[in-house]
Design a protein that fits this description.
By secondary structure, the chain is an alpha/beta fold. It has 20 helices and ten strands. Strands 2-1-3-10-4 form a five-stranded mixed sheet, with helices on both faces.
Length: 396
Amino acid sequence: MITQRKRVKWISVVALLALLAAACGDDDTAETQATAAPTTTAAPTTTAAPTTTAAEMTETTAAATTTTAAPTTTAAPAPAEPTDIRLRLSWIADPGFMGLYEAVEQGFFDDENINVTIEHGGPNVPNSTQVVAGGAADIGVTDPFSLALAMSEGADFVVFGVRMQSDPTGIGSLCDNPINSPADIAGKKIAGGTTDGFLIDALLTANGLEPGTYELIPAGWDMSPVVDGTVDGMLIWVNSHPLPLNAMGICNVSWTFSEMGLPAYQDLFFTTTEFMANNREAIVGFLRANIRGWEYAFNDPEHAIDLVMNTWGGVDLGLVLEDQFPIHEAQIPLMTSPLTDEKGLFWFDLDQIQNIQNGYVITATGLPSVPDAADVYDISILESAYEGCGSSLLDC
């Protein structure tokens, strides 16, 4: 069988023989042939040889096409969907959460690929331990006493950060009817949240006094019941509640539980062990963003307080702008300690936690025992959040 390639070769040979024969003719013919030489230089048959390699060219082109199409197999994966985290706070919008608000405002949660939904607490509402245990929130903020009580009832929690190194909880009263010691509580009407009785009982028990020797009156967050005489004292945060009274020139006194014999950490950030196991990296990112927000707020408190008032509802809640700056100034020493100076905000000491667990938490709750600190407080989340950054995350 004569293939296309062989056929072309034969044609080429015949043409070549014809040219040689013509070259052997007379001079006139040679001269004419020389003049007509362009027919030999234009010989498309010999220069059109690519027709003999069409299959090869097709194979080469196909190979090139296959090679250039390869990047489709190495395309970058689509970005992961953000992790949704529902956060339940322990109180209304105020400077106690200004760092969190800055973390939202500055995009620090976005940096961690986290979508945070924030729900505030307040007086006469369920404690965040109940909300998280019931599945309506993923992360909560609470105190060590409420945490222990919830765990004694079957909740399975883990704490991964502590905002306040010293608990500002205390009792406020007026100068003309002062409560200066735990002994002064007996027989008094004390305003507070519906679940605050166990804290007062813990304070009394820690001082060798009979619990329940007072009347708990549910009240809101301001001290007006104390001012109008409805109650004798009120469970307060000493860095915030008395300030309006001070501004009005109303003489008042306040003492922290720590000063009266019941110290503790405050504002524990916690979640369930199940959520922690399934979302550890997201929780590390959440804590890292929150800490960065607090560092930003410390650097620019005016901006952070503006967020409290005008973005997160402080104005609607009736907060007074001028009061928020001293509240913030008063919370700085409560949030800092030699430990946070060395390692950064939100750190905690397991030995100190154990002392609180063994002494004050048991006293406050009346429980026969509580879990070991290392079984409830997971310090590894802080270690991961601060890894390679020293004691500051904002510029790390």
